[in-house]
C-alpha cells in the first residue's frame, strides 16, 4: 500500500513539473492598448476668453428738457415696438413755455402790421420797420424752439427692441439729457464683447471666425465673426476690447449673459501642424516629449517636439505624420518594441 502511494505522488510531481515548464516557455501576451490617428490642425493655438452678450445697438433714451417724470410705461426686459410711448414728463411748464412763445410771436406779428401802415404814412423810418420785422422773425424762431422741445417731452421707441435698463422712476426730477431708459435694438442682432491681451490682439483680424458658448444654454454652440477691434487698450484693465457679431439664431438670447469665446485667427489657418491626443504623451521635458507609434502590431517609441497644447490635443513641431496611429490608453505601461493588441473604442483596457 505504501509503495503504491509513493509512486502516485511521484507521477503527480512529474506532471506538475511538466505543466510549469510549458507555462514558462509560452510567449508573453500582447499588451492591450487603444490608438488614435494624428490629425492636422491650425498652426497657432486658438484664443479662448470670456465676454458678455450684448445687443448690437444699445440706445440711451432721455428727455430733451429737464422735469419731473410723470409716467414710465415700461419695465426692464419688456419688448417694445417702434413708435411706442415709453415715458413722459410733466407738461405744465413745457406747455407754459410754448404759450409764452406763441403770445410773443403774435404780438410781434401785430407790431409788424402796424409798422407797415405807419411806414406807409411816413410816421416811422425804414430802420424802425426793419427792427420790427427782425423782432417778429426772432419770436417765430423762439416759438419753433418751444414747440420742438414740447415734442421731446416724451420718450418714444425709435426701433423695435427690449428695455435693458430703467435708470429712473416716476416722480423723479431728471435733468435735460440724463438717460432714463436703455433700449436694446433687435434689428442689429447680438454681439459678444470681450477683452483680449496684447499678445493675442495682434493675431486677430476683422471677420475672423468665432464660436460662442453660453453658460445659460449648455450644449449650444453659436457662431459669429469679429466685427470690431479696439485700436487702444482700456486704461482700467489694460485689455483690448473686441466685438464678435453673432450669426442669426432662434435661441432665446438676453443681454448680459456670460459667454465663452473660441477664436481661430485667420493667420493660424494659413499653415498646419500635426495634432495628437494629450493622452498619447508619455513623458516630457519642456518641449521634448515621447509617444508610442503603432508599427505592425508593435509599439515603437518616438521622440517629438511640442508646439503648444490646446485642450485635449497637443500640436507637434515634428516627429509624427498625419494619420499615423499613436497609442493613447496603455501607453504608460509600454516598452519600445513591445507587442500590443489594439482594443476597440469604448471598451475596457
Topology readout:
Blueprint: H1 2-25, E1 31-33, E2 35-37, E3 39-42, E4 47-62, E5 67-72, E6 79-80, E7 85-89, H2 92-120, H3 126-151, E8 154-156, E9 161-166, E10 173-174, E11 179-196, H4 198-201, E12 209-214, E13 221-229, E14 240-246, E15 258-263, E16 272-277, E17 283-285, E18 288-295, E19 298-310, E20 313-318, E21 325-327, E22 338-342
Parallel strand pairs: 1-22
Antiparallel strand pairs: 2-21, 3-16, 4-11, 4-15, 5-7, 5-10, 6-9, 7-8, 9-11, 11-14, 12-13, 12-15, 13-14, 16-20, 17-18, 18-19, 19-20, 19-22
Helix pairs in contact: 2-3
Task: Tell me what you see in this structure.
Among the domains are: 31-43 and 271-342, Beta Barrel (conserved putative lor/sdh protein from methanococcus maripaludis s2 fold); 47-57 and 187-269, Elongation Factor Tu (Ef-tu), domain 3 (Beta Barrel), CATH 2.40.30; 92-152, Helix Hairpins, CATH 1.10.287. The strands form four sheets. Strands 1, 3, 16, 17, 18, 19, 20 and 22 form an eight-stranded mixed β-sheet that branches. It has helices at 2-25, 92-120, 126-151, 198-201, and strands spanning 31-33, 35-37, 39-42, 47-62, 67-72, 79-80, 85-89, 154-156, 161-166, 173-174, 179-196, 209-214, 221-229, 240-246, 258-263, 272-277, 283-285, 288-295, 298-310, 313-318, 325-327, 338-342. Helix 2 (92-120) packs antiparallel against helix 3 (126-151). The longest helix has 29 residues, at 92-120. The two termini are 53 Å apart. The protein is 24% helix and 40% strand. Mean pLDDT is 85; it is low at 1-23. It has four helices and 22 strands. It is α+β, with helices and mostly antiparallel strands and 349 residues long. The radius of gyration is 41 Å and the shape is rod-shaped.
